[in-house]
């Protein structure tokens, strides 16, 4: 485009390139989802349909941005991990955050009716986003462990809270009853008063969702119409522990 007298305003834009050589995490989180879940009468403590919609929205991000190595989701949030070597959008924070947020949000809205066919979408879901750099793999793993521990703590608390509320207690009394209780107390309460074995609650709720790319054999139709088998990268949603070493040893390509 021809230069104009107004061109100089471009120099007001600030450089927001993320540090080179660091892992990048882009995290999105639903705005006011406590209210949003009430408004849409989602199941408590965990609505599996809404979680599956979150996973589908995260898959769309991974398909649109092949540089994303791994994603971890729980509740109304998802974290997307980019490797230290990524050059995507020159590592510009605002480009990366805004594109991930809009891809995620647009997919969430576009596919809502597929996952919650009985529930009309009554308001506009919004997600915030941030970018954080982590200087090495150890800190990146601590970040992911932090999110998965959060999943566990919230899920155990919410399992107890909603068991009490569904059992007839009012919400303030249920919070009061759980104040200061240890994990062991909560496990015991669930088991002795409600017959719920915490470890039998679905892994999706206890462990969150981890999205990765895996090599897999897929059936492909050849030009002559016959079927063959080919190795391809495919997206996979796992509900497993990512705190211990086993997951990382099983998937070394994630951190190469
Ligand atoms: P903020 O705008 O600050 O993020 P928020 O209300 O979204 O506010 P969060 O800390 O993000 O607060 O918590 C998310 C809320 O959404 C929690 O109350 C959580 O229980 C609820 N929630 C998220 N996903 C589900 C789901 N699939 N089923 C039931 N409840 C959910
Ligand atoms: P980038 O991802 O870098 O933004 P881009 O293809 O979106 O790439 P832009 O500089 O943003 O590039 O240009 C927007 C393009 O979309 C132009 O080609 C413009 O003509 C076209 N476009 C946008 N809105 C309309 C519209 N309402 N009708 C027709 N063409 C449009
Ligand atoms: Mg929040
Ligand atoms: Mg939120
Ligand atoms: Mg949240
Ligand atoms: Mg433009
Ligand atoms: Mg454009």
From TrEMBL:
Keywords: GTP-binding, Magnesium, Metal-binding, Nucleotide-binding, Nucleotidyltransferase, Nucleus, Transferase, tRNA processing. Mg(2+) 2 binds at residues 29, 76. GTP binds at residues 75-76. Binds 2 magnesium ions per subunit. Residues 6-135 form the tRNAHis guanylyltransferase catalytic domain. GO terms for biological process: tRNA modification. Its main location: nucleus. Mg(2+) 1 binds at residues 29-30, 76. Its cofactor is Mg(2+). One of its GO terms (molecular function) is magnesium ion binding. InterPro entries: Thg1_C_dom, tRNAHis_GuaTrfase_cat, tRNAHis_GuaTrfase_Thg1, tRNAHis_GuaTrfase_Thg1_sf. Adds a GMP to the 5'-end of tRNA(His) after transcription and RNase P cleavage. This is tRNA(His) guanylyltransferase. The lineage of its organism: Eukaryota, Viridiplantae, Chlorophyta, core chlorophytes, Trebouxiophyceae.
């Amino acid at each position: 485009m021809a230069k104009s007298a107004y061109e100089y305003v471009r120099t007001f834009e600030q450089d927001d390139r993320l540090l080179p050589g660091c892992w990048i995490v882009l995290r999105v989180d639903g705005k006011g989802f406590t209210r949003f879940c009430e408004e849409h009468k989602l199941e408590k403590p965990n609505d599996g349909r809404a979680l599956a919609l979150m996973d589908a929205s995260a898959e769309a991000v991974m398909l649109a941005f092949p540089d994303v190595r791994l994603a971890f989701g729980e509740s109304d949030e998802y974290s997307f991990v980019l490797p230290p070597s990524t050059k995507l959008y020159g590592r510009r924070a605002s480009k990366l955050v805004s594109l991930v947020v809009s891809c995620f949000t647009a997919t969430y809205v576009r596919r809502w009716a597929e996952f919650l066919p009985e529930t009309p979408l009554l308001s506009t879901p919004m997600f915030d986003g941030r970018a954080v750099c982590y200087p090495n793999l150890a800190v990146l793993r601590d970040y992911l462990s932090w999110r998965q521990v959060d999943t566990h703590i919230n899920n155990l608390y919410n399992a107890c809270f909603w068991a009490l509320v569904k059992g007839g207690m009012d919400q303030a009394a249920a919070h009061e009853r759980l104040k200061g209780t240890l994990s062991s107390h909560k496990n015991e309460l669930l088991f002795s008063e409600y017959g719920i074995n915490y470890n039998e609650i679905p892994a999706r709720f206890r462990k969150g969702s981890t999205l990765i790319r895996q090599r897999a054999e897929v059936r492909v139709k050849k030009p002559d119409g016959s079927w063959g088998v080919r190795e391809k990268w495919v997206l996979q949603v796992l509900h497993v522990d990512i705190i211990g070493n086993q997951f990382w040893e099983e998937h070394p390509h994630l951190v190469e």
